[in-house]
Amino acid sequence: xxxxxxxxxxxxxRNAIMANHRIVEVPSSKMKKEMTKILFEKGYILNYKxxxxxxxxxxxxxxxxxxxxxxxxxNSLVRISKPGLRKYVDADHLPRVLNGLxxxxxxxxxxVMTDKEAKVKKIGGExxxxxx
Length: 132
Description:
Blueprint lengths: L4 H14 L4 E5 L2 H12 L3 E7 L6 E6 L13 E3 L8 E2 L13 E6 L2 E4 H7 L3 E7 L1
Antiparallel strand pairs: 1-3, 2-3, 4-8, 5-8, 6-7, 6-8
């Protein structure tokens, strides 16, 4: 049993990038599916596939690398809010990652979204992670 599934998700992706894997599989949940959709929309991953027909549903993520330098599109994945210490922010204090070049994934009352989307909607929530 994993006590922090989001940290496990980020660690699996981080380890796959460090090992230069093309595809990584992670156990599925609603939160992880939404985070994966955000990563795809923002161009951090190449593609994804939800495989829910298996008993523990899985998410297959195709990682994105530069064709010449072989560097990953994701430089860092940092878990902010942990089970032992949750980090909540209001709309006025939403974090900026790398001065706007990275994204923060926020879990709000209207769903999981990036810091920029939350700022436009003027809602706060729990800061899940920083991605750059």
